[in-house]
Specification:
Length: 586
């Protein structure tokens, strides 16, 4: 079989020769494993990247077989210790393997075998029993720690139960994948008006963005009664809604039977939650498995989006008065010193624990704001009591911007929200005014103003330089919703909003400051469709030459917030308010 090496080996020879020709005898080239495996999609069987470590003190190069064109590695050559990532293409055929051979100028070598599963190999998202080591006596599911879940979606799963226990009695048997050992028993509920249904739950199974699934488990039913009214398997996607799955008995020679449910879902279901319940109790479960299904088969599962979030009008999801932005960051108060020349300010992403101290760094991180959305990793500065957003010169043509924390709206639910803040335009020391536009945008499901748009460009109209401006944005006085949409979050959290400079030319410099509690504010209403976790607010000042500001002067009476509204009330919120600078968990 023909081999080839990349030219970097020759280059390494020149470098090594130029440095030294001495051999110490201590040259090493070792690998962390003798073999690694990938499933048919190129992932590990746990769902991660296929990697291994090189432990070395020499220059090395990886030689690949010529016919291993289904495989790439990075890096192909390096010096010393490295982590090598192996990327395998999707396998359309049988099981395949190749050997990676490491050579070095110092004569030390190593090799590792890479194997990929065949196309007919099943992808398991999770498969688990209840442990092979028998428990001495029943243990409540919530207190059991010996779960050993496997699969590409099992890294973050959790288990819980109601009147559910791990027991070694009556081990599973009689179907192909029966593991024996422990199983889960759903106890017979007690009598009384507050009787609860026994259940076993598996949460946060990652779907890998797939659509077709099969769910299998072993079940021991009292008297063999496996009917939907006595035994149910339900699926959810992180919200309140659980949908019953249709199942059939497919195997089982004795008391234990194996049941199978086939189903499919649409997009935007990054995780599943499962609940198995038996109202009358007495059922046992084992060998819970979720694996890939076949295209076009099974029950359609459609999760509903909508319905009110349930929080009272005026409830505050997030607020910040920027009082945490103090002189510890090295900035100064430009507003209070205009028209002096440009004064000191500190780049947001330049704040570290080493540069400004752990307390200052923790305050910045703890504020919840981020600058990393839409390539806005520059042009945001800390002053005193407010944040300046400068004009961007990056490749994306964006100015500075801030992203709010994810809003904890219940998943698959909706809320009408109002966003308030203050802002002002930047004016240079020579009297030149910067452009006056800025943008508020919804990140995640939701729209602004018309049920279609996801952003709103605002025009600041301050009559005097660097004066805080308060404003209410469009349509609300007639009761028109300013934001609508629905939540279908892939990022695992309710919505956010961003504040910053639009991506179009002619933006503004301005201070943006959360609105005062007892006044009218610049506002955006978010109407029905920030359902669950994933919506954020983005404030973005567009193409500013010097700097706009998202700001709140240190004023006890002034706060900025995102809160519930009935679409008609554009005044200050009267509902409960969480502590400043904190996101309110629901």
């Amino acid at each position: 079989m023909k081999k080839y090496s990349i030219w970097l080996l020759g280059f390494a020879a020149l470098v090594a020769g130029a440095c030294s020709t001495d051999r110490t005898g201590d040259e090493t080239l070792a690998l962390s494993a003798s073999s690694v495996s990938a499933n048919k999609r190129g992932m590990t069987y746990e769902g991660g990247d296929v990697t291994f470590d090189v432990l070395s003190n020499v220059y090395w190069v990886i030689n690949l077989d010529e016919d291993a064109d289904w495989l790439t590695v990075a890096p192909r050559a390096a010096y010393g210790n490295q982590t090598v990532k192996v990327t395998a293409a999707v396998n359309p055929g049988g099981r395949r393997s190749t050997t990676l051979r490491f050579d070095s100028l110092d004569g030390v070598t190593a090799q590792i075998e890479v194997t990929q599963g065949s196309s007919d190999e099943l992808i398991y998202y999770i498969r688990t029993g209840a442990g092979a080591s028998a428990v001495a006596e029943p243990v409540a599911v919530g207190g059991y720690t010996a779960w050993e879940p496997e699969g590409v979606g099992a890294s973050a799963v959790g288990f819980s139960g109601v009147n559910a226990f791990v027991s070694a009695d009556t081990p599973s048997s009689g179907y192909d994948e029966a593991s024996g050992g422990n199983n889960i028993v759903l106890e017979v509920p007690g009598e009384g008006p507050e009787t609860v249904t026994p259940s076993f739950s598996v949460r946060d199974v990652a779907t890998r963005d797939d659509s077709y699934f099969r769910l299998k488990m072993g079940v021991l039913a009292p008297g063999g009664e496996l009917t939907p009214d006595r035994f149910r398997a339900l699926v959810g996607n992180g919200g309140d809604e659980l949908i019953a799955l249709q199942y059939e008995v497919i195997d089982g020679a004795g008391d234990w039977k194996e049941v199978l449910a086939r189903f499919w879902v649409g997009e935007d279901n990054p995780t599943f939650d499962f609940k198995v319940e038996a109202p009358a109790g007495g059922y046992r479960i084992d060998d819970f498995r979720l694996y890939e299904g076949n295209f076009g088969e099974g029950q359609e599962v459609a999760f509903q989006v909508g319905g009110d979030d349930g929080k009272p009008e005026g409830y505050v999801y997030f607020e910040d008065d920027f009082s945490w932005v103090t002189d510890v960051y090295g900035g100064t108060d430009y507003i209070g010193t205009y028209p002096t020349p440009l004064t000191a300010e500190t780049y947001w992403n330049g704040i570290t624990a080493a540069s400004h101290g752990q307390e200052a760094y923790n305050a910045l991180v703890g504020s919840g704001w981020k600058t990393d959305d839409n390539k806005l990793k520059e042009r945001v500065y800390l002053r005193i009591g407010y944040v300046k957003m400068g004009r961007g010169s990056n490749a994306a043509g964006c100015g500075g911007g801030l992203v709010s924390p994810t809003l904890d709206i219940r998943k698959n639910r909706a809320a009408d929200l109002k966003v308030t803040f203050k802002c002002c335009i930047y004016v240079a020391a020579n009297g030149t005014w910067d452009p006056s536009t800025m943008q508020v945008r919804v990140i995640g499901p939701g729209t602004v103003n018309d049920g279609v748009s996801t952003e709103k460009v605002l025009v600041m109209q301050t009559e005097t330089p660097v004066q805080w401006e308060e404003k209410t944005l469009g349509g609300g006085n007639q009761g028109q919703p300013l934001v609508s949409g629905r939540r279908a979050d892939r990022q695992g959290g309710p919505g956010r909003q961003t504040f910053g400079r639009p991506d179009t030319a002619g933006g503004s410099c301005g201070d943006v400051r959360p609105g005062c509690r007892y006044r009218k504010f610049r506002e955006v209403h978010l109407d029905r469709g920030l359902a669950g976790r994933g919506v954020r607010v983005f404030l973005h000042l567009s193409q500013l030459r010097r700097g706009g500001r998202l700001a709140q002067r240190q004023d006890d009476g002034a706060v900025g917030r995102i809160y519930r509204t009935d679409r008609r009330d554009f005044g200050p919120p009267d509902g409960p308010r969480p502590a400043r600078r904190r996101r309110q968990d629901l």
